[in-house]
Amino acid sequence: MRALHVITGLGVGGAEQQLRLLLRHLPVRCDVVTLTNPGAVAEGLRADGVRVRDLGMRSNRDLGAVPRLARLIRGGSYDLVHTHLYRACVYGRIAARLAGTTVVSTEHSLGRAEIEGRPLTRGTRELYLRTERLGAATVAVSDTVAGRLRAWGVPAARIHTVPNGIDVEAFRFDAERRRSTRALLGLPGSAFVVGGVGRLVPGKRFDVLIRAVAALPGAWLVLAGDGPEGGPLRALAARLGAADRVRFLGECGAPGTAPGVPEVLSALDTFVSASREESFGLAVVEALAAGLPVVYAACPAIEDLPAARVPGTTRIGSGAQDPTGELTAALRRRMEDGPRRLPPPPAVDHYDIRLSSRRLMDVYARAVGTAPVTPTERAHP
To answer: What is the model's pLDDT at position 373?
Structure first.
């Protein structure tokens, strides 16, 4: 089988990083096309040996991108097109239909009222649904997202849940890595360190995390990620008198940057995700794999599983409610308990990237009407 993955952009982001990890484990030959922004993840994919092309889309209404993409699909003789993120799903489904190629789409970031961090409008939803019918299947990254798709009107028979996955071993706790990372970041060896990972955007509510840590004089905070809220968040930390206890790391995992997310997690004592809404919550699963206690506001990766499979997690108020006080109290309790590392819970194995790869191959096989490809048949570009 030969597949083409089409994605809106390849800057550092959850869906983009997930695509790169997935391609390391899919037993098929895969190429990638990005509609725009061939950023750090494009470089990483090329380093992995994946062929990446930039379609050069100039704007959301660059309709010429459709025939360009259709020609590329036909020229590559692909058995399957797999699209990721809203714009790529819309344009990619149309182009694949024009090229006469089967298309599967993954819905990474559908919230109740937002998609990819932007408000959902009637027009956005209508365009999505009209083009969704052109595909053979729609993949949801969590049962929560699958439910939202059904509520939109996507037929249940067309929806397949394939959870995001992680490389479990990459996040395994290592005491020496903890010491070296703390030294690199200028964190006291005995300090209580809280952390968060993600784009610095309003929906992630990193301001709540800064306020909670500022109210706990003995706590330090590490934020890994970048985005438009970076300046305001730094200003908030300074205004609260906590700037010297907050480390803003920028993007982790981009070429030439250090430390990476596994190293950051090794340096922490507690992980927090205060996001108002998530479609999966990949950073939370990574934190659990690192043996960290987790405090979260919304995380389908946890909420979709029985509580017994996710010990060590604490949920705080979500939605419109401001959870600052609740988070502060939860972190104070963690501080009083002292530093501790937990064994990775059963949920971590459930989200192993190898399982996600096998589940996706079952979707591919059904879409194109062939027998599943086995891992021994893997072909590299």
So the answer is: 45
**Distance from C-alpha of 323 to C-alpha of 58, rounded to nearest angstrom:** 40
pTM over 0.70: yes
* Backbone dihedral angles phi then psi of residue 328, each to the nearest 5 degrees: -60, -45
Helix (DSSP H) and strand (DSSP E) numbers for the chain = 15, 15
Distance separating alpha carbons of residues 183 and 80, to the nearest angstrom: 47
Check if the beta carbon of residue 2 is closer than 8 Å to that of residue 28: yes
Q: Which of 58, 10, 67, 14 is nearest to 33 (CA)?
A: 10
Q: Tell me, what DSSP letter sits at residue 279? A: S
Amino acid at position 299, single letter: C
Token pair of 279 as six digits = 């479609």
User: What is the rounded distance in angstroms from the CA atom of residue 30 to the CA atom of residue 208?
Assistant: 41
β strands within 120-267, DSSP E: 137-140, 159-161, 192-197, 219-224, 246-248
How high is the mean pLDDT in each 10-residue block of the chain (381 residues)?
Answer: 95 89 96 93 94 90 90 96 95 96 94 79 89 95 94 93 96 95 95 96 95 97 95 98 96 70 96 93 96 95 92 82 92 92 93 96 91 40 35
191 is written with which tokens?
């300090």
d(CA 241, CA 321): 25
**Dist CA 291 CA 278 (whole Å):** 21
AA identity, residue 376 = T
Contact 235, 211 (CB under 8 A): no
Please tell me the distance from the alpha carbon of residue 26 to that of residue 30, in angstroms, as a whole number.
Answer: 8
pLDDT for the residue numbered 369? 87
For the chain, give the longest Cα–Cα distance: 62
Sheet with 192-197, side-by-side order of all strands:
246-248, 219-224, 192-197, 270-273, 294-296, 313-315
